[in-house]
Specification:
- With 770 residues, this protein is of the alpha/beta class.
- The chain has 21 helices and 27 strands.
- A 7-stranded parallel sheet has the order 1-2-3-4-5-6-9. Strands 10-15-14-13-11-12 form a 6-stranded mixed sheet, sandwiched between helices.
- A hairpin with a 2-residue loop joins β7 and β8.
- 58% of the residues are buried.
- This is Glycoside hydrolase family 3 N-terminal domain-containing protein.
- It comes from Saccharopolyspora ipomoeae.
- It holds the Pfam family Fn3-like.
Length: 770
């Protein structure tokens, strides 16, 4: 029977006029140990019935959760993925969430609602919700403003359905392109990731959704690109490459939650790392929000890492390190941890520390106010016209025209052969966290819930005639090169669509747990493209993928190369717009495209010894570098000005140039500012992005682009490990990609070596004028 609480609504913790700290302290003082611990866990009520894994080792822990009715008698901290675990109509999902919240609040003594969290990596991961481009496409857009606009819309959809927390964005910096989760990242450069990721965070938070930064930290640098593999990384790489995007998203974006990484770095699992989660994250960076576990990550301390002898020890280690909430289920933080607290092996003040953070966030969300209601505001249309417009705009900006011999644009396509295993596959548009690919594949009798026109569909809309042949299956088998050749030979143009099909844990060629042995196009796709080239018909190679693939054997033999990174439900229309010239391409590569399949690991962000040299027979130079992308117009750079020859190590300098559209149509250029520190205390990158601006320039006109560069933006971890600004020469390079500067200059930092901390300047503001 529901417990009556006639006096609870008059207690101080229910008073919105009191400071958050007073309300939390009052509530904590009234709670039993069981009630406290239940606030530190989630519950995933749909996990046992899932047909396919959506989290590592999910099946190992599916039956470990206490019964629902028993669990909620002491309250509950979080509800795990009510919308994102099975297909459910939006109204039904909101009703289910309302029912669950009502049961939680009426069954427990204090009636504290749960925080409902969902995935939102490529849109709200719910049936019928807009499938936006994946984060690697956000990076390709180089457009923080549009990404922030998308995030605000995603957040509004989630909030309307009663959701409070979103598990995004992923701020891992790509270190090895073979890693399956490259599609979830924003690229290989920390500043690009930090700038675009911060905009996403700010947009999500503006809608009242708690943004959760993933995965803290070092996850993407796993050995051999294998998911969950150990990480070998020095403190400088961690400080200068891995950490900055998280710092930016916390300080500039305002993220209120952080999710620990699964991995171990130099032998220390992140979930048990007090230096990482408390000393660094809280004491140094000043984070005051909640740290949540990646799914089953606390249990992994026992089951996978071997640093705990059982669930209780795992819970104690994670709690001591600074993990506030165990997700997705209660396994280590309830009964096993309660026994250790009662025995005196774990101090209850550690429980209270985490509880204070959790309850503080619930107060901020209004969940402890007297007028809180379990009724959701009422779900908005999850795939509204406004959402679809956002998805289309972002998809258009993220299409990268990599190479073009003049064949594109084809303004009036005649007979077109559309060939490839992905040409007529709606899943060619979707990353592994889009609902149809993430959950929908387990429910084949359910419709996708959204319109997913394929590349073939959209090309057929504008061409006089389309012949479609798969040519081969993905990942392998079913090759019919003869039919593909015949279709191409009889066409005016051949569009070959190759790349990836996203999945989870080996069920795709890209996605979580779908790591690659090398960067050769999966299966028989390269052989298929070579067969098409042999026909003599111009071939436009379209790569729709979650990572870049080695194109050295193909790029100079095709008419054009177009790269899209799982561009979402509007992706096929965006690509077709670029092919026909309706859209002037403006996307830029957030990851380099390699020449050969085996040149890994490696990104553009390398010290001099990582570049090509006469002492090694292997040349790691990218085929197409980070930041590269073509347009249907031309841009000229001129009049570089650096405002001072000398700048104090605590000062700032203006770096400005003029960009002129010398072509005959309007276009967007992505102006990129790179720095090089040629003499430093430790080896520094050959070139590193320090600022960028997407600039719209009408045909025949010019724009003045000015970067305000603070000396802090040159800081790095010096010889003694402290982050410093070091006096000396700084080279300035401005242009359209990382390898080919159009303008170069320099200035000199003068003064004493200056140590900088977490309050340093993290961004490079840009001013654009006519």
């Amino acid at each position: 029977m529901p417990q009556s609480r006639p006096t609870e609504d008059r207690q101080p913790y229910r008073d919105p006029a009191l400071p958050v700290e007073e309300r939390v302290a009052d509530l904590v003082s009234r709670m039993t140990l069981e009630e406290k611990l239940n606030q530190l866990v989630g519950m995933w009520i749909y996990v046992s019935g899932a047909e396919e894994r959506v989290a590592p080792h999910q099946e190992d822990f599916a039956d470990d959760t206490p019964p629902w009715d028993e669990m909620i008698k002491s309250g509950l901290g979080q509800l795990t993925r009510v919308f994102g675990s099975a297909p459910i109509e939006p109204d039904c999902g909101a009703a289910a969430l309302t029912r669950l919240q009502r049961e939680i609040t009426t069954s427990s003594r204090f009636g504290i609602p749960a925080v409902a969290h969902e995935e939102c990596l490529a849109g709200f991961t719910a049936w019928g919700a807009t499938a936006y481009p994946v984060p690697l496409s956000w990076g390709a857009s180089f457009d923080p403003g549009l990404v922030g606009e998308m995030a605000a819309s995603i957040g509004a959809d989630m909030r309307s359905a009663g959701v409070h927390q979103g598990l995004a964005p992923v701020l891992d910096v790509v270190r090895d392109l073979r890693w399956g989760r490259v599609e979830e990242t924003l690229g290989e450069d920390p500043y690009l990731i930090g700038a675009v990721g911060s905009a996403y965070v700010a947009g999500l938070e503006s809608s009242g959704i708690v943004a959760t930064l993933k995965h803290f930290a070092g996850y993407s640098a796993s050995r051999a690109g294998r998911n969950l593999a150990p990480v070998s990384m020095g403190p400088r790489e961690f400080a200068d490459v891995v950490l900055p995007p998280f710092e930016m998203a916390l300080r500039l974006g305002g993220a209120r939650s952080v999710m620990h990484s699964y991995t171990d770095v130099d032998g220390m699992p992140s979930a048990a790392d007090e230096v990482l989660l408390t000393d660094l994250l809280r004491d140094e960076l000043g984070f005051t929000g909640t740290v949540v576990a990646d799914y089953f990550g606390v249990s992994f301390l026992h089951k996978l890492h071997g640093v705990a002898g059982g669930p209780g020890e795992a819970g104690a280690a994670a709690l001591r390190a600074g993990v506030d909430v165990e997700l997705p289920n209660a396994r280590c933080y309830v009964d096993p941890l309660a026994r250790l607290v009662r025995s005196g092996e774990v101090d209850e003040t550690l429980v209270d520390r985490a509880l204070g953070r959790v309850l503080g966030q619930k107060v901020e969300l209004g969940l402890l106010d007297p007028d809180w209601s379990p009724e959701a505001p009422g779900p908005r249309e999850f795939d509204s016209a406004a959402n679809r417009d956002l998805a289309r705009r972002l998809a258009e900006e993220s299409v990268v025209l990599v190479a073009n011999d003049g064949t594109l644009p084809v303004r009036e396509p005649g007979r077109v052969a559309v060939v490839g295993p992905l040409a007529d596959d709606p899943f060619a548009l979707l990353g592994c966290y889009s609902f149809p690919a993430h959950i929908g594949v387990s429910y084949p009798d359910w419709p996708h819930g959204i319109d997913l026109p394929t590349f073939r569909d959209e090309i057929a809309r504008v061409a006089e005639h389309v012949d479609h042949v798969k040519g081969c299956d993905l990942p392998s088998g079913g090759a019919d090169f003869d039919a593909a050749r015949a279709a191409a030979a009889g066409a005016d143009l051949c569009v070959a669509v190759v790349g990836d099909r996203a999945g989870l844990f080996g069920r795709g060629t890209s996605g979580e747990g779908c790591d690659a042995a090398d960067l050769r196009l999966p299966g028989d796709q390269q052989e298929l493209v070579e067969a098409l080239i042999e026909t003599g018909t111009p071939v436009v190679l379209v790569v729709s993928s979650g990572r870049p693939y080695a194109l050295g054997a193909l790029a100079d033999r095709v008419a054009a190369v177009v790269q899209v990174f799982f561009p979402g439900e509007a992706g096929a229309a965006a690509l077709t717009g670029v092919l026909t010239g309706e859209v002037n391409p403006s996307g830029r590569l957030p990851v380099s495209i390699p020449v050969t399949p085996g040149g890994n690991p490696g990104t553009y962000l390398t010290a001099p010894l990582g570049a090509a040299s006469e002492v090694s027979s292997l040349d790691p130079t990218a085929l197409f570098p980070f930041g590269h992308g073509l347009s249907y117009t031309d841009f000229a750079y001129s009049d570089l000005q650096v405002s001072a020859e000398e700048v104090g190590t605590d000062g700032a300098v203006e770096v400005a140039c003029t960009v002129t559209n010398t072509g005959d149509r309007d276009g967007d250029e992505v102006v990129q500012l790179y720095l090089r520190d040629p003499v430093a205390q430790v080896t520094r990158p050959v070139r590193q992005l320090a600022g960028f601006a997407r600039v719209s320039v009408p045909a025949g006109e010019s724009r003045r682009v000015s970067f305000r560069l603070h000396a802090d933006r040159t800081a790095y971890a010096g010889a003694r490990g402290k982050r410093i600004v070091d006096p000396g020469l700084i080279e300035v390079h401005v242009g359209g990609d990382s390898a080919n500067p159009r303008l170069s200059g320099e200035f000199r930092l003068v003064g004493e070596v200056r140590e900088v901390g977490a309050d340093r300047v993290l961004d490079t503001p840009v001013t654009i004028s006519e």
